[in-house]
TrEMBL record:
Subunit-structure text: Homodimer.
Protein name (Swiss-Prot/TrEMBL): Pyridoxine/pyridoxamine 5'-phosphate oxidase
Cofactor requirements of the protein: FMN
UniProt cross-references to SUPFAM superfamilies, sorted A to Z: FMN-binding split barrel (SSF50475)
Family per similarity comment: Belongs to the pyridoxamine 5'-phosphate oxidase family.
Catalyzed reactions: pyridoxamine 5'-phosphate + O2 + H2O = pyridoxal 5'-phosphate + H2O2 + NH4(+); pyridoxine 5'-phosphate + O2 = pyridoxal 5'-phosphate + H2O2
Comment on bound cofactor: Binds 1 FMN per subunit.
Domain Pyridoxamine 5'-phosphate oxidase N-terminal residues, every copy: 37-160
Family annotation (HAMAP family): PdxH
Record Pfam families: PNP_phzG_C (PF10590), PNPOx_N (PF01243)
Gene3D superfamilies found in the cross-reference section: Electron Transport, Fmn-binding Protein, Chain A
Length: 214
């Protein structure tokens, strides 16, 4: 199979993307494309790749779920002791990628993060399923663990500890808002002649739109 990898390809033919198709506001445009992917029934349509960089310049990526988007930015939540959180402390620059290949689209976001307020974090945490709240307490995200059985044992301990009443917000759990300065929309095209448009934030907070070569 490995010797066949170079031959794996397909044609993109769902349609092109012109400047007149784009809204002047990239968040409005993103909302429209997000609705399109949700309407397909694709599992985890809000899944995005989150890329951070450590102190040595080593990039790292992982899949995270987008939990809110507004003119203020893109929101996600995490354990504040995780690798991504530690890297964002040192370098707040971040990139998001939405791989919507089923409709032959991609969106890339570049920006910087700001920490969410305790009120925002608490409100979202309390809206999560109880088991997810307990899992947040049980897992020291990104830390080594010898067996899955040990993880499940920690989960059982936490479940017993908070058997009665509301699960409190862990002090080590929070969220980020990605404030974008660049958002790129990619639409697959025939013969690899894809359509790419990038929005770049200007000093007056307006957006400049430019077509890119594929």
């Amino acid at each position: 199979m490995l010797d066949k990898l170079a031959d794996i390809r397909r044609e993109y033919s769902r349609g092109g993307l012109d400047r007149q198709d784009l809204h002047d506001d990239p968040i409005v445009q993103f909302d429209a494309w997000l609705k399109d992917i949700i309407d397909t029934g694709l599992p985890d349509p809000t899944a995005m790749t989150v890329a951070t960089v450590d102190a040595n310049g080593q990039p790292s990526q992982r899949i995270v779920l987008l939990k809110d988007v507004s003119p203020d930015g893109f929101v996600f939540y995490t354990n504040l002791g995780s690798r991504k959180a530690e890297e964002l402390k040192q370098n707040p620059r971040i990139s998001l990628h939405f791989p919507w290949h089923i409709i032959e689209r991609q969106v890339k976001v570049c920006g910087v993060v700001e920490s969410l307020s305790s009120l925002e974090v608490s409100k979202y945490f309390l809206s999560r399923p109880r088991e997810s709240q307990l899992a947040a307490w049980a897992s020291q995200q990104s830390r080594p663990i010898s067996t899955r059985q040990l993880l499940m044992s920690k989960f059982a301990e936490v479940k017993d500890k908070f058997a009665k009443g509301q699960v409190p917000l862990p002090s080590f759990w929070g969220g980020y808002r990605v404030i974008p300065h660049e958002i790129e929309f990619w639409q697959g095209g025939e013969h690899r002649l894809h359509d790419r448009f990038v929005y770049r934030r200007q000093p007056d907070n307006t957006w400049q739109i430019e077509r890119l070569m594929p």
